[in-house]
Every structure is written in C-alpha cells, then in structure tokens.
Amino acid sequence: MNIKLLRTILNHDKNQFLFWKNRLLKNKILICELNSVYAQNTLIEYTTLLSNLIINNGYPCNDIYAIKKKIYAIIAENNAYPINTEILSQIICLFFDLLLNETYSSEIESSQKIKNHIDRNITQSLTLSDIARNLHMPLKELNLQFKAKYDLTINQYIRRRKIDISKNLLYATNLSFQDIATFVGFNSQSYFITTFKAIVGQTPSDYRKNNKQQNLA
C-alpha cells in the first residue's frame, strides 16, 4: 500500500486521502492482482494491514475484530475474479472513516489526552514541547502525569508505539527500512534500526525474515 495513503489515514486528511486512494486504485500491478486467482488474498492483506494500523492508533481491538470479520465474509462472497476495485475502495474508506469519526471525551484525564495525542500523531516527529503546546499543558507536568498512569515516560511510549507500527509494516509489506523509518517518524534509518533492536531484541531484517518464515511454515 502506498505509504502516503497510510499517512493520510492517520492524519485524517480527507482531500489527500481521496487523491492517494484514487492513485492506488489505478495502479496497474494492483489491478492485475485483483484480476487474478490471488484477488481474495490481496483484499485480505489490505484489510489486515489497515486493521493493525488503526488498532495501533488507539481504536478498540474488539470493535476492529468484529468489523474485520464482516469484511472477510464480504470477501468470501466475492469468490470469483476479477474483483471490482470498488470493493477495495470501500474497505479503505471504511478504515479512514473509523479513525475520522472516533471521538474522545473532553473530560478525560490529562494522561489519556497525552496518549491520544501521541497515537494520532505517531508518524510525526514528536517532542515534549510540541505536545505541551498542542494540549495547552505545563511542560514540567507532562511526564509526571503520564508515567504515573502508564509506568513509562512519554519518550519511551513514543518509541514503543513507533516500533509497534514498524513491526506490522515489516510483516505485511515489502517497504524498505528507510521508507518504514520515514513513515513512523524516525530521523534516520540507523536510529530506527538501533531503536528497533533495543526494544524487540532483533534487527528489522531478522524480524522480517523470521516472521515470513513462520507464516510459510
């Protein structure tokens, strides 16, 4: 999936979302896949990637699993190929709308507001100063409130969330390490690899290889 399309979904940018969605649906390779015996697999892969993406951005897992189950049923009903690109278009739009329409209570506690803000902007380069300014909170109180709730500093949480998304992209796509690092907001590929190994215990290359092998087993 086009990395720019994923970014527009996370950023709730409807105009850019529609632009990149239309570009994707005109992609010749994708059209060939939807006209082949692998059409259903292609739809399932896109559904899985999008499901993981928005779960990693704070959407309730149980809700997504229920929605994903319904989508799989629709895909199963369309067991003949070619599959119209409109089906994939509807799947992509559904996940965009889920994030766009997600609402948060204005009365939630500060630590939850911080977490929500991070989750919604996780592909950006986030600093404590930016978070404090955007949420209108005193800078010196951010980490105290957040760590009291989640037992992590804000920067620790940001790094782990970025790595969680990276793991899904390593497993579900063939994006390069540089593209993944850029997408999740790391300043460099080397910093991404170092952080990934520190948190996961293996390099991105080993993680991708091991998970591909497990999937084939």
TrEMBL record:
Domain HTH araC/xylS-type span(s) in chain numbering: 112-210
Main enzyme class: transferase
UniProt entry keywords in alphabetical sequence: DNA-binding, Methyltransferase, Transcription, Transcription regulation, Transferase
InterPro entries the UniProt entry points to: Homeodomain-like_sf (IPR009057), HTH_AraC (IPR018060), Tscrpt_reg_AraC-type_HTH (IPR020449)
Gene3D superfamilies: Homeodomain-like
Region forming the signal peptide: none
A GO term, aspect molecular function: DNA-binding transcription factor activity
UniProt EC number: 2.1.1.-
Highest taxon above the source species: Bacteria
GO terms classed as biological process: methylation
Family matches, as Pfam families: HTH_18
Protein name (Swiss-Prot/TrEMBL): Bifunctional transcriptional activator/DNA repair enzyme AdaA
The species this protein was found in: Leuconostoc suionicum
Gene (UniProt): adaA
